[in-house]
Structures are given as structure tokens and as C-alpha cells.
User: Fold this.
Amino acid sequence: MINTWAAMPLVPLALALATGIAITPWLPAHAAWTLWVGAVAAAIAGLAASRLALGGVALLVATAALGMLRAMPAPLPPDHVGRLALPLRADVTGRVAAPPVAAPGRLRVLLDVERIDDAPRSGRLPLTAYGDTLPDLVVGQRIRAEA
Assistant:
């Protein structure tokens, strides 16, 4: 029995989607949107002109563009801590997001940030506290620290 593309109709689509995901790091978002719009327009034109091969290839390119768009990370909100200019020394206020990890002489804490220097902020921030006597922290506890 010979396997043909007709026997495996989703394989080309899966390969196109995987290709789009794989090339995401090298192309900006606007290029993916442009590629998708152009491929959909070419597919419609090819199918309207009864050029099925052109329409099929264009649909595969559109599927690859959708894979690129799906794999792109969402943009950070304007108040996210990832947008702050570094290095920065500030007062950080937030809630403990995960159980702290203790080690000899230090405590690692994952913090859901609420405010930085009295300005509302969002995001998660890993902090490490050093010392011999460290506080016992629990998930959900609100803390303020200079970091």
C-alpha cells in the first residue's frame, strides 16, 4: 500500500504549523501578519481562478504564518516590572506567590508585585534575602522590601 498525501490530509497542515512555530524567533510580528494576509489573499485568488495548486500552497503558507503568530509571546502590559530600566534600586511591595525556598544563610522568594516606589506595577519578581535570622513567610503574605 502506497501512502499518499490524500491518505494523510492533515500532515501538510501540521508540518506548515510546525514550520511557522520553528521560525518564530527570526521574524517580527508584523512580518507574520503581512505573510498571513498575503497568503490568504493569494489562496482566495488561486481558488477563484481554479488554480488549486496555488490555492493549496497559499493556504499552507497562511497556516505557517498562523503558527508563527501563535508561538509569539504576548506583549507585556505597560506597568509590568519587565519594562523597568535597570539597574534600579526601589521599594517593592507585593505578595508572596510561592512557598519560599530556604537555604543556609538565605531565603528565595517569588513575589507578585503590587507597587514599586508607590507606583502601581504588575508581574513576578524573584527576590533573595540574605542573613542569619530571616522571617518566616507564607504564600499570600504581603511584604515590603528595598530591592
Strands lie at 91-96, 101-103, 106-116, 119-120, 124-130, 142-146. The radius of gyration is 25 Å.
